Amino acid sequence: MQIINIDSIDDERVAAYGNLTELQLRNRLEPAKGLFIAESPKVIDRALAAGREPISLLVEQQWLEGMTDMFARIDHQWGSGIPVYVASSEQLRRLTGYRLHRGALAAMRRWPLPSIETVCRGARRIAVMENIVDHTNVGALMRSAAALDVDAVLVTPSCGDPLYRRAARVSMGTVFQVPWTRICEQTLDCDGSDITENSIDTWQSDNQGGVRNPQNRNDNEASTEKLTANKTIDGTVSDSPNQATCGSDDDRHTKRQDKRCWPDAGMAELKRLGFTTVAMALSDDSITLDELVHRLNNEPSASDHIDKLALIFGTEGDGLTRRTIADTDLTVKIPMSNGVDSLNVAASSALTFYATRVRN
């Protein structure tokens, strides 16, 4: 590793850690050139264990000595030319805008996402996140999926990015362990489809592995990528079109989701692969989670037995769209008491994953 002390947070070599928006880091036009930021030694370690390529690291001075083993592994796998930029605690706070990075961050290369068929090969339990826009919930669902033996996760075109720094941090790095992909990745891009190569400054590695950003925009945890949707009571069904607002604070744009992609094409693909599709929602014909578990554990010869299960969770507030619910095989609800009719998607998904896990 090349240890390089940073004198100023304006050093263009560390622009990716603070000045580039999540949108710019993704570079969806050329995924091989896109970046994501992994925060905290644990998240970085899990990304490395999954074979993700580091471009550079940014480490707080007091954490440097404790990361020597990680540096040795990086040298062994990726060579000794990867820079480690060293800064003070105050410099990191000013650059990133917060202190939740546990003293270490890494800029890492994105990878082309696989097909649905590849991700679901051999899977018996998968989850689908439909337009979940809170990255804390995205990360929490990924963590529960890893802990409770969900085989794969699919995200719809307008869903938040699992590699967004907050999502990856909340997932504790399990986003690098659970197979996942974005439905219709080649067809629709909510987070950057209107952006051309000339409209953003894509990162350029210099001879020290740095990142150039002539716009020098201040973009911290509180003001990077925002995705918003109309809000109602969590868990109810939305009458609104399947739409989300995407972009940074000063470059927001709205793009209607291509319904030919989801639910139409995506749902058809899941059924082609043999999955029983289940909408987690309140409706007049919803069966209980207990009934779903009964069907999963029934004898394979039973007429209502379910083997391969796709659980679909909706966005905060609106829940699943009516179109999605209409296209699924079953609608399932979690029985509740004391006048409570819904749970946060992070809680409901964890409960559902545990209840529906494969029991050998």
TrEMBL record:
- Gene Ontology annotations of biological process type: methylation; RNA processing
Q: Name one GO molecular function term.
A: RNA binding
The segment annotated Disordered runs over 199-258
Q: Which UniProt keywords apply?
A: Methyltransferase, Transferase
Q: State the superkingdom.
A: Bacteria
Q: Where is the composition biased (Polar residues)?
A: 199-217, 225-246
Where the record annotates domain tRNA/rRNA methyltransferase SpoU type, the positions are: 126-183, 267-354
Q: Which residues cross the membrane?
A: none
What is the protein named? tRNA/rRNA methyltransferase
Q: Which organism is it from?
A: Bifidobacterium bohemicum DSM 22767
